[in-house]
Inverse folding.
């Protein structure tokens, strides 16, 4: 279909009445720019008519956002006023949309009935806003954000104040939200994805943006799936699929755009997502060209202006007989919200062969990430400091070899192209003595050097001596450079303490201290404030952070299921064949005929392949499919049983022996105390699993001396010991204290568990933790310091008041149901059936 | 009848960020569909090259998934085991169009008798 077009050279300098007739559909940014480009090459070649559906001259659409926000007037954003059309002999038919293209006759028909013939036709119809077809989308007060009429509607609505809901947290939606909120409306942004502007930003930058917008008073709801727009004739609110209702006097749909292709489609041009064009912007009909957001070139559609400029140049070259060919564009984005600096370009989805270089400066609110593949820069996301955006964009577009400046790349242009050699040490050596090294504590290079000269010979002693890098840690690299420059051979190298994982230079203890001191409340916030070097952490730090946050802020913490290991995410133990095992709690190892019947019935019903008595005095049902978990839990719940947390970094079992109730040697009711201890501690999340046992006498049938907390009953009371482990490294417990009453024993248990929760590293069982801090420390906190003990107990019981709930019951009630369902199912034979 | 090259398996938002869902294929190999933090969608056979662990239940970070059974890291892009480990699982081509996920029919049905 795509026959090559030959330009008839004889027509090149034709007189006006012999000129080729060029008709342009669309008086927008691309249509007019194309005309400007053609005129600048050959002003006499075409007799031009432009049709515009909007009743006005050509203006800068992207500046509608500043018009909405009140920073600009319409007059200020006009690109070409009426005199431009007049001076260039262009006929502008505005306010009259073209409704048909007659290809055979080579003419277009407009809404007013006018028929206009063409030799060349240029389609530049732009895009249409995408409207999600939920109930109520046609109510008055539901608008889009595309042209000046939309801005006028928003301004009218804003005059009376009230609530605005913007659906869509992309570039357009956020600019609308910003404008409306400056105009005095109370704004809520609903975004389907977890991250704002997810196509331009990664999670970390999206988080910063969100925090800033929230600080400015906007309400941002992510993962918000709109179910319905409510109201009788005018909109009154928006309802989400999860049932949430939000008041609204105005709803702005900014969920995306789709190329405006209807005219082209009806005219039977080749159309996929957009109007298909070749490198010269020619459609499947050689007489018809297309440009702008309505086209699809080499499979890509664009929604930004920069590519349009490039398309228009190629188009004009071709139309004036000097074809150059358009090869596609790399795009970059900036958000036009005053006070927020944000830049993104290229591809930052990562990959095995790509490398992320991340720099975070929490004190200045800066996040920078560049993505490198081989020796090329392929993507960049900048938040807070976008000064180097255009430099990165340039490196990216020109595919420049960056191997020479790689080490310094993240510091920006000034730094990377500064010194002759690009070894970071020499860059640091070149800094003046007044240069600030540590922004948090205002420490200069001179002070750090003085501190090193004064005897500090490693990072920790510099931190202790002059506080450099002791707060946020982002200047750790600079301080280490100074150590190596100043000490040369004598510098022992980077410090020996082990950081939490490869994503950070902080230890577990540093991270926990910072979470409390800086009141960090979410995983992205910790990663930003503590300068994580990876965009979204790894399988080792994410679960740890999730736990530290949950422990620090029991009421505020929002659980992140994706940061849980599979067993905790599924509330069951995964088996080697991918099925799960289910262990209901049996308090203190006691069961009843009813419970046993329920377990037997469940085992039959769900075709369990094995029921086993565990080493923890309860029953384990094996071989359950993930789809069946909610139903088996429902059945067990119905018989009064709850999750045994056999899968969790949490309280596992409390083993007991029969004790004084039955045993001829029993001194106390060990079963009763075990049940009380289990009822107090079950459901609590901990750094690792935690096991308790209570034996009725020193014969110790419950094996209390190899548990995290063991109790041996004696005539005069209860002997508590801690830090035992029967696992990989056998370790007997250490004696903690003696309690005289059950009540006192329970107080010690609660305090010890809480101390372990607050201070042990994630994935440390009590045994290695006790060995590290020593029994003297533990006794000092639990036995000798009574007010401290009571405070620990109180914090534990408070956390339990929030966390002690049966996760199975929550799932049975529908929580996280997607985890138990397939996304879809392919039944090939059903599909292959003849239609 | 010409068969479509792609099978529509539903809207993107059915997948949590950094999460995964399963797609059983009757008579064939179950597929795991993943979504990364940046929103890209990938599909692999739901079977770890090590000992058949269900990759859909692992933890997703960057463009890899850590197997839930013994912590092998598998690339979502190539299906290859990363680091010291050696092995590879089939990658099934996926694409997203207008917010819906499509999976390539031929690859999805590979091995169906
Ligand atoms: C089911 C059970 C074995 C049994 O059939 O009896 C069991 C099964 C598992 N144990 Fe255990 N342990 C079981 C009692 C024990 C005991 C005995 C006890 O609790 O008195 C111990 C030694 C005591 C101790 O923990 O100090 C024990 C020490 C371990 C260890 C080593 C822990 C250590 O600190 O060294 C692991 C590995 C780990 O947790 O990292 C482990 C890990 C496991 C895991 C979870 C392996 C895994 O990560 O998938 C097994 C899950 C099997 C499954 O699919 O359900 N299991 N495990 C027992 C469940 C008890 C319960 O009712 O909840
Ligand atoms: C509020 C807002 C902010 C933006 N901010 C940015 C930004 O910061 N950076 C950036 O790069 N891009 C931004 N954009 C996108 C940018 O405006 C578009 O990429 C650009 O305008 C596309 O140009 P176009 O000529 O293809 O379409 P348009 O500019 O939309 O022009 C198409 C014109 O064709 C007319 N038309 C359609 N059908 C017919 C018909 N049948 N007959 C006659 N006329 C017709 C339309 O009325 C319209 O005037 C923004 C867009 C909006 C709406
Ligand atoms: S001892 Fe080993 S094999 Fe047996 S249940 Fe425990 S972890 Fe599994
Ligand atoms: S089965 Fe995946 S790591 Fe072993």
């Amino acid at each position: 279909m795509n026959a090559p077009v030959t330009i008839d050279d004889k027509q090149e300098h034709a007189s006006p009445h012999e000129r080729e007739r060029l008709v342009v559909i669309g008086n927008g940014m691309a249509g007019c720019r194309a005309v400007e480009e053609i005129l600048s090459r050959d002003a006499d070649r075409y007799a031009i008519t432009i049709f515009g559906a909007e009743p006005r001259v050509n203006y800068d659409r992207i500046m509608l956002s500043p018009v909405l926000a009140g920073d600009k007037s319409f007059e200020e954003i006009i690109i070409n006023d009426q005199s431009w059309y007049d001076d260039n002999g262009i006929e502008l038919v505005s306010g009259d949309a073209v409704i048909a293209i007659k290809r055979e006759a080579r003419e277009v028909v407009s809404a007013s009935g006018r028929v206009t013939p063409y030799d060349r036709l240029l389609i530049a119809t732009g895009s249409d806003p995408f409207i999600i077809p939920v109930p109520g989308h046609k109510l008055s007060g539901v608008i889009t954000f595309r042209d000046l009429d939309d801005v006028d509607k928003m301004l009218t609505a804003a005059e009376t104040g009230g609530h605005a809901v913007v659906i869509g947290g992309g570039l357009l939606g956020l600019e609308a939200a910003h404008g409306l909120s400056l105009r005095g409306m109370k704004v809520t942004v609903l975004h389907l994805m977890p991250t704002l502007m997810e196509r331009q930003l990664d999670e970390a930058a999206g988080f910063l943006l969100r925090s800033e917008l929230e600080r400015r008073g906007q309400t941002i709801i992510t993962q918000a799936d709109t179910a319905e727009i409510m109201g009788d004739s005018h909109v009154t609110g928006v309802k989400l699929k999860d049932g949430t209702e939000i008041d609204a006097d105005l709803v702005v749909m900014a969920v995306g755009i789709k190329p405006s292709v209807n005219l082209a489609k009806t005219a039977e041009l080749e159309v996929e997502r957009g109007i298909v064009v070749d490198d010269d912007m020619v459609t499947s009909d050689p007489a018809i060209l297309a440009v702008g957001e309505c086209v699809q070139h080499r499979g890509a559609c664009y929604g930004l202006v920069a590519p349009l400029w490039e398309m228009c140049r190629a188009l004009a070259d071709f139309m004036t007989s000097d074809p150059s060919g358009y090869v596609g564009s790399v795009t970059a984005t900036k958000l036009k919200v005053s006070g927020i600096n944000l830049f993104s370009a290229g591809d930052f989805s990562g990959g095995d062969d790509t490398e992320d270089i991340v720099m975070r400066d929490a004190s200045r609110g800066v996040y920078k990430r560049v993505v490198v593949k081989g020796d090329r820069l392929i993507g960049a996301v900048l938040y807070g400091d976008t000064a180097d955006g255009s430099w990165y964009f340039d490196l990216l577009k020109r595919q420049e070899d960056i191997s020479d400046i790689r080490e310094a790349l993240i510091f920006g242009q000034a730094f990377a192209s500064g010194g002759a050699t690009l070894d970071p040490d020499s860059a640091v050596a070149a800094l003046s003595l007044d240069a600030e090294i540590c922004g948090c504590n205002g420490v200069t290079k001179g002070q750090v050097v003085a501190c090193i000269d004064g005897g500090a010979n490693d990072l920790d002693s510099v931190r202790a001596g002059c506080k450099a890098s002791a707060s946020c840690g982002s200047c750790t690299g600079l301080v280490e450079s100074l150590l190596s420059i100043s000490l040369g051979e004598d510098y022992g190298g980077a410090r020996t303490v082990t950081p939490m994982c490869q994503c950070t230079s902080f230890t577990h203890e540093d991270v926990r201290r910072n979470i409390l001191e800086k009141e960090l409340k979410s995983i992205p916030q910790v990663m930003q404030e503590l300068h994580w070097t990876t965009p979204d952490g790894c399988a080792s730090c994410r679960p740890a952070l999730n736990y530290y946050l949950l422990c620090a802020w029991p009421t505020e913490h929002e659980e992140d299921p994706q940061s849980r290991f599979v067993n905790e995410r599924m509330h069951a133990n995964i088996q080697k064949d991918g099925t799960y095992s289910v262990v209901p709690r049996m308090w203190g190892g006691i069961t009843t005929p009813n419970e046993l019947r329920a377990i037997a019935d469940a085992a039959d019903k769900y075709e369990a392949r094995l029921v086993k008595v565990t080493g923890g005095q309860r029953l384990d049902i094996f071989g359950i499919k993930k789809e069946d978990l909610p139903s088996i839990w429902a059945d067990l719940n119905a018989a009064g049983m709850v999750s045994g947390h056999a899968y969790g970094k949490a309280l596992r079992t409390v083993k007991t022996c029969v004790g004084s109730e039955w045993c001829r040697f029993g001194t106390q009711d060990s079963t009763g105390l075990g049940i009380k201890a289990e009822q107090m501690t079950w459901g609590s999340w901990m750094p690792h699993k935690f096991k308790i046992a209570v034996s009725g006498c020193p014969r110790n049938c419950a094996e209390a001396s190899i548990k995290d907390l063991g109790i041996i009953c004696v005539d005069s009371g209860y002997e508590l010991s801690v830090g035992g482990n029967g696992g990989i490294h056998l370790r007997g417990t250490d004696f903690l204290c003696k309690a005289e009453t059950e009540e006192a024993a329970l107080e010690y248990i609660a305090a010890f568990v809480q101390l372990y929760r607050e201070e042990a590293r994630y994935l440390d069982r009590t045994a290695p933790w006790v060995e590290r801090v020593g029994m003297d420390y533990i006794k000092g906190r639990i036995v000798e310091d009574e007010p401290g003990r009571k405070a620990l107990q109180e914090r534990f019981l408070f956390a339990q008041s929030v966390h002690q709930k049966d996760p199975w019951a929550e799932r049975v009630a529908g929580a996280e149901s997607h985890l138990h369902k397939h996304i879809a199912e392919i039944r090939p034979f059903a599909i292959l059936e003849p239609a | 009848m010409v068969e479509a090259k792609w099978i529509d398996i539903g809207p993107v938002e059915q997948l949590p960020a950094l999460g995964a869902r399963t797609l059983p294929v009757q008579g064939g190999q179950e597929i795991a569909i993943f979504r990364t933090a940046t929103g890209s969608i990938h599909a692999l056979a739901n079977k770890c090259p090590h000992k058949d662990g269900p990759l859909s239940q692992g933890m997703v970070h960057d463009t890899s998934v850590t197997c839930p059974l013994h912590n092998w890291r598998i690339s979502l892009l190539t299906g290859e085991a990363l680091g010291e480990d050696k092995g590879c699982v089939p990658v099934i081509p996926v694409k997203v169009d207008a917010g819906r996920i499509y999976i390539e029919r031929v690859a999805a049905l590979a091995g169906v008798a």
